[in-house]
UniProtKB/TrEMBL annotation, chain A:
Residues 1-75 form the FAD-binding FR-type domain. The keyword Flavoprotein applies. One of its GO terms (molecular function) is flavin adenine dinucleotide binding. It holds the Pfam family FAD_binding_6. This is Oxidoreductase. SUPFAM superfamilies: Ferredoxin reductase-like, C-terminal NADP-linked domain (SSF52343), Riboflavin synthase domain-like (SSF63380). The keyword Acetylation does not apply. It comes from Maribellus luteus. Keywords: 2Fe-2S, FAD, Flavoprotein, Iron, Iron-sulfur, Metal-binding, Oxidoreductase. Its cofactor is FAD.
Amino acid sequence: MERNGMPFQTGQFLILSLKGQIDRREYSVYSGENDDFLEVLVREVEGGKVSAKLKRLKPGDQLDVDGPFGFFKFSPDMFSPQKFLFIATGTGISPFHSFVKTHPGLDYQLIHGVRYVEEAYDHNDFDPKRITLCTSADKNGDFEGRVTAFVAEQKLDLGTNCFLCGNSEMIFEMFDILTGKGIPVSNIYSEVYF
Amino acid sequence: MNLSDGERVISVLDKAGYQWTDNEEEANLIGILACSVRQKAIDKVYSRIHKWNKWKNHKNLITFISGCILPDDHEKFLKLFDITFQMKDLPKLPEMISNYGITTPLHLKVGIDPHNENIEQFWDVKPNYQSNFEAFIPIQNGCDKFCSFCAVPYTRGREVSRPSRDIISEVALLAAQGYKSITLLGQNVNSYGLDKKGEEITFPQLLREIGELGKRLKKDFWVYFTSPHPRDMTDEVIEVIAEYPVLAKQIHLPMQSGDDKVLMRMNRKHNMEKYRHIVESIRRIIPQATLFTDIIVGFTGETDEQFDNTRKAMEEFKFNMSYTAIYSPRPGATSHRWDDDVALEEKKRRLHILTEELRKHNFPYNNSLVGKTVRVLVKGADRKEGFLSGHTEGKLIVRFAADDENLVGQFVDVKITSASDFSMEGELVEAGSLKSEVGIPKPVATV
């Protein structure tokens, strides 16, 4: 999408609707703060009132874009130590893509959970040493199973800043896993895709 | 918020020559300012409009609706009401009424303007205050927080701050007219100004300006605000309240739940650590302040353990008042898509437990005031015959024996003689005096 000068901070979301239509949906910004365009990652929902229409858009079509909104804003300078664990399911990888694109050189690990390896969107944009793909429905990822099962097996530095984005079930389960490992609640940041 | 909107609607209709009637059946123009926070309120709208539309068979009647309306309801209301408009278009209401029967672009406009363009026109409408001692001033419209149980971001649109000069002028005018209680209104008052990206003062700066105004005017009045969001609550706000006498020492801080996972599911953007820090700051900086809150019980997925964390939080924070609501899914809000899986009986049980918890803390607090003299703003006749009632600066209810209705709207000093769970009783000491104010106690330990 043309950005038209819209300011946003990495981690924020937009509300999109087809021009003049009532149905609207929230999408995290996928592109970086310095890009001169706006990108969002959309999973087509069967019978969805917005995603199906977005899929049919052609170049030149117009959208109503409202925002930016949200408090999942990220700037590495706000943290000490600057050591980050990003955990996403599905299109929840969007804000982390924006984080990494905006702030090259981040000290991060990204755990991304999908059903099939084909859903591992744009993994080339991440440092391969810093990303772990968890696949729950095939054996082609780095880990066979859900992100929660993977993280439950890991030893974590208690000072790690943990960012969670994706479906609510994953986030609530992960919250218990992380706090169970001793990560303070104040080090856990979440953006729930409801 | 609807009360404040209503004062402006009355003002516009007054100027257009309409005469108010308390008798619904006598009216030729009936309007509703809708509230979408609970489904029950919207159900009532449907019930009323069906009744009014039947009346049209035997009388001249025009109906209108405005306020908080979800897009789905808005489409249905277009067919049921004669006039449907967004509150920002209120100045054009007389024009819409006079053009009734001729389809107007405003009438046909479907959907909600999320940007609240032209909201300034609404704020420019001088309200017809319904009280001569208590007033509400909108300082902001809309909400950007997107709590999962709430539909306000979809009904009132984005947060837009009213110009501070207009707010301060309205406060000055009301104070000069002798108003004693002024409440600043907004969905998230403490994010006031942030939408203007540095071109407007912030909420603590606004409070400071009002505090300075209070000093200059040498008038005796209390300024409240509701409601703030814990996410944007800073020590600076609390310090400013402590500094200025006109800023009432009562803070309404919605907690909603005492459990971090429930707060996450509610998309509240604050956790209990943050909430605890704010309460500690309030107790440290303004020890005499009373603390009110909002809580939702039986939110979707709330377990016994999570509910118990809310009960424990009430035990810890010793609120003076909690507006506790049983969760009901609201179409348009995110949580409406989830199972409403806590049974109604269980929700009622949880509500009862929290009410008992509140009662347990309130009585010792109120009882500690027995023998002390407190300032009370008299609000009207009490249910108890021969008594008037009002509230303290901290919004605690006090009744006292008096039958002089001239005291309504005045400050009086009352010596507290007895206390109950949610109110106190006392004896009138002196009316209109400034000298007998005494400190309100710090929260007391539960007995």
